[in-house]
Structure formats: C-alpha cells, structure tokens
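With this grant's support, we have settled on a layout for protein records. An illustrative entry appears below exactly as we store it:
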Amino acid sequence: MSDHADHTSNDEHMRHEGPRDGRRGVTRRRLAGLLIAIAALALVGDVLAGVTLGRSSSSSPSSTITVTGSGTAHGTPDTVSFQIGVSTVANSATQALANNNARVRALESALIGHGVTRRNLQTSGLDLYANYDSHGNVTGFTAEDDLNVTMHRISKAGAAIDAAANAAGNGARLNGLTFSISNQSKLLAAARASAMHNAYVEASDIVRAGKATLGNIVRVTDQENASTGVVYPGTAFATASNASLVPIEAGSQSINVQVTVVYALHG
C-alpha cells in the first residue's frame, strides 16, 4: 500500500511541475529570440550609418584654385575740385577779420559769376590768430578763410580761378586741384570685365599645365581703385591781377579693378 501511495504522489507532483517548467522554457526561448532581434537591428543600423557617412564624404566640396586678375579702363575727367582762400593781415583782430570777409565775398561772387553754384561752395577753414616778432611782441593779426570748390565744367575752371584771384587781391591762395569722373559705372564695368577675363586666362593656363579641368566659379571678390591727379601744389598769387587765364588740362583718369576668383577644380 505504501509503495503505491508513493508512486501516486510522485506522479501527481510531476503533473503539477511539468507545465511550469514548460512555460519557463518558452520564456527563455522568447527572450533569446528578442536579444537576437535587437542585435540584428543594431547591426543593420551600423551598416546604414556607414552608408550615410560614405555618401556625406563623397559629396564634400571638390578642390579649388584661387587666382587674381586686374583690369584698367581710361576716361576723361568731367569734374574739377580745388581749394581757394584768402589771407589778410591787419593791426587788430577785428580789422583783419573784416577785411578778410570782404575779400572772401568778392572771391565768392567771382566764382559764382563763372559758373560755380552755391551748393558747390563749402567753407573748409577759418582762422584768426596773432603774429609775433622774435621777442614775443604782437605785430598784428592774420585772418584766413578757405573754400572748397567743385566745378562740373572744367573748361570754365581756369577763368573762374583767375577771376577769383583778381577779386580777392593779394593774399589769395590756391591749394591744389583734383580731377574726377562723376559717373564711373561704365568704366568700372569695363575694368571689371577685363579683370575677370585675365583671371580666367591665368586659371586656365595653370589648370592646363596641371592636366586638370577648370570648373565653375565658386566665389569672387573685387577691389576698385580710381586714381586722381593733383595739378597744382599749394600756390599763392603774388599780384591782384593776371593778364592771362590759368591754363588747366584735365588729361585722362584710370579706373582700376582687381578681382580674386575661386574656381572649382576637377582632377
């Protein structure tokens, strides 16, 4: 009886334990499968990342070549600017200033009468100071007044300067002339086109020698430089009258452009 009871008890125990062990086996298999799937996804991610990085590096900018080119265009100035003024000496400061003011008004009237407009007249300097001898004693006072003048008709500038000098009398001063071109757009365009052509020729020569191929323009920077000429240095008129007109020649003026061009370079 006891043996039979023991076998029966063991059988009952195995029936109860069996299903739990089976469920544990299934759970382990599912966990293992999940881990394998995660590892596979990680591997695929690495592969995709590698492909993306490869494309990114292959699309990086190509090699470049940088060259400079210069171009020059010449034109005839149509505007002249100069500084003209008056200096007056008197025993007192008030008298020096009053006399100088009268001379400046006469100078302005002469300039306006020869084609200078008031908007092209600008006071550039006004000074009043005492004069001293070698012992430090005051010997008088000097008043000075200077005007910046612009004229757009160069052919009349000589006559205007001559008339101003005669009107102001002794002490009239001319402090140089400069010429300019009022509208430089066409000259700049011509100079820039020449500069770009010269840059292209230089780049082509270099690339051809290196057995490579010149690509498109990547970047361009340019620098403009307009030259101006000073005709007269600072000059004082010695007399109040001058029988001949002041000769003025405008000559020509150069407009310079320098460009720096970056080209793509294909091997």
Q: What stands out?
A: The mean pLDDT is 80. The two ends are 99 Å apart (CA to CA). The chain is about 45% helix and 35% strand.
